[in-house]
Every structure is written in structure tokens, then in C-alpha cells.
Write a structure and sequence with these properties.
alpha/beta, 2 domains, D-Maltodextrin-Binding Protein, domain 2, 10 helices, disordered N terminus
Length: 290
């Protein structure tokens, strides 16, 4: 179609005016130009997992209550299973896209490549471990608890000093074992067990006077697994910052930043508190060792 003569004259003038008009800076509204980060955890996580479309999560086997229910991390039940799926949702992964793999606790924080995106297994964030792996922000602040048989003299202890004379034990590689050595400092070396099941059996067999674990695990042991045992008391580790559990990644894994964003989101909206209240409800008033 032929353009009317008036329009043909006005068009160059309009284009000229547009070319001379001051333009708004693109850097004020362009996130990439301004160097800002991804707008959501899901945006952040794109292209950063081991397998496209899949989030690979690791934990130990057996997977203990109350962190996992029924030794099945994939059912979404138990504190850490629920946290993992809440984080996965923030990262843009449906439950069906979450793949679980087994990783022994003591192997998880060894240096080197990993066959998972992150591991969630009551792994305390420590400076020594952080030299060779990367941790997320903490998702749980832990207290240590002492478990003894109700008939044992240890059950009457009220202070860390009272515990020095007893034979104590904990799982190898755990901060519970470190707490015995550094905070209780018993007169005899603690017994070291391969896993919590072995430690519990040693308590029943009177090989140790008491064992140490994190408080939620102690609740489950005394309520369900060893009803003849009691939580004598709880204590915070005396050195450094409060003990926190973090998700563990291969060193410098860029996905850790995205998980931190996801954790911040479920903290801000109350999801993390709801998960803790559901799975780690502490209804017993446990005394604190003085």
C-alpha cells in the first residue's frame, strides 16, 4: 500500500526526534546489567545440579528417627526429610525429581568429588570440615544430651563435673564425641562406636555408663528404643559458636548459594519452624548441666 504524503513527511521527523530524546539508562532496570543475583532459589539452581531435572540428596543408612521415619528418606517424614523436600520445592524440584543416595556419615565430609548435590545427615558445621567441603547455612541448632540407664548412678548427675568419673561413649566422627573429650573431659578415654546402634547396645550391655547424642535423637532413644534409659541432661558445647547442622556440598559447589536462598525463604515464611514443631517437638523439660 502506498503511504500518504503527509505521513511520509512526518515519519523522518518523528524518528529524528526519538533519536535525539534522552534515553533512560538500561542498567537501572536490567538485573544482568546491574550484576544482581537470581531472583529466586529456583532461578539460581538452574544448571547447577549433577543431573538436569534431578536433585540428588544423600544421607546415611540406616537413617534414624526423628530425622527420618521408617528408615526411608524418600517418604518426606522426619525432620531432615521434610526439610530436604521443602528446600527442593524452593529450588524448583517436585518430590518425584528428588533422588536419594546413601552416603556414610564419616565419608560425607571427606575431601573430593561427590555423587550427590548435597548431604543432609545431622552434619555439624565445623571449621575443620569447612576446609575441604562447603556447608549451607545452618538449618538446626543442636544441644548435646547425655543418655544413661535409669538405674545407673549417672542418672543422678547434675553437672559436667559429675560426669568426669564415668565411662562415656559416642559415635565416631561426631560432635557428640568431641563434646565428651573437650567439654566433659572424663578421666578415662571415651569409647568410640561405628554408629548409634552399636552405642545403644553398648549402653544396654553396661559397656559404658552413658552415651552422648544430639537432643532430638536422645528423645527418640529414650522414648521408643530404650525405655529403661533417661536423658540425664543437656548441654551446649562450650567452645565456639552454637553447634548447627548444615547441608554438605562438594567444596565450592555453586548450588550451596541457592540452597541458602531456599533456607532463608522457608525460615522467613515459617515453614522451617512448622517442620521443627512437627518432628522435633520437645515436650520434656530436660535439665541443663551446670
Amino acid at each position: 500500500m502506498r503511504m500518504p504524503r503527509t505521513a511520509a513527511v512526518l515519519l523522518p521527523l518523528t524518528l529524528l526526534a526519538l533519536g535525539c530524546a534522552p534515553q533512560a539508562s538500561s542498567t537501572a532496570t536490567d538485573p544482568q546489567a546491574s550484576g544482581s543475583t537470581a531472583t529466586s532459589p529456583a532461578d539460581c539452581a538452574q544448571g547447577k545440579t549433577l543431573a538436569d531435572g534431578t536433585l540428588t540428596v544423600a544421607t546415611d543408612s540406616p537413617a534414624y528417627d526423628p530425622w527420618f521415619k521408617g528408615n526411608d528418606p524418600s517418604n518426606g517424614k522426619g525432620y531432615e526429610s521434610a526439610v530436604a523436600y521443602a528446600v527442593a520445592q524452593q529450588l524448583g524440584f517436585d518430590p518425584s525429581a528428588v533422588k536419594w543416595v546413601k552416603e556414610p556419615f564419616n565419608k560425607s565430609y571427606a575431601p573430593g568429588d561427590k555423587n550427590f548435590d548435597f548431604d543432609i545427615n545431622q552434619i555439624s558445621i565445623t571449621p575443620e570440615r569447612a576446609k575441604v567441603v562447603t556447608f549451607s547455612d545452618g538449618y538446626y541448632t543442636a544441644s548435646q544430651a547425655l543418655i544413661a540407664l535409669k538405674s545407673s548412678p549417672v542418672a543422678k548427675a547434675t553437672s559436667l563435673a559429675d560426669l568426669k568419673q564415668y565411662k562415656l561413649g559416642a559415635q565416631t566422627g561426631t560432635t557428640s564425641l568431641t563434646a565428651i573429650r573437650n567439654d566433659i573431659q572424663p578421666s578415662t578415654q571415651p569409647l568410640v562406636f561405628q554408629n548409634t546402634n552399636v552405642a545403644k547396645q553398648a549402653l544396654l550391655n553396661h559397656q559404658v555408663d552413658a552415651i552422648v547424642s544430639d537432643l532430638p535423637t536422645a528423645f527418640y532413644i529414650t522414648a521408643v528404643e530404650i525405655p529403661s534409659a533417661t536423658i540425664v541432661g543437656q548441654f551446649k558445647q562450650q567452645s565456639g559458636s552454637p553447634e548447627q547442622f548444615g547441608m554438605l556440598f562438594a567444596q565450592n559447589n555453586p548450588l550451596a548459594e541457592c540452597v541458602d536462598q531456599a533456607l532463608a525463604a522457608i525460615k522467613d515464611d515459617g515453614t522451617l519452624d512448622q517442620i521443627e514443631q512437627k518432628w522435633l517437638s520437645q515436650t520434656v523439660n530436660v535439665p541443663v548441666f551446670q
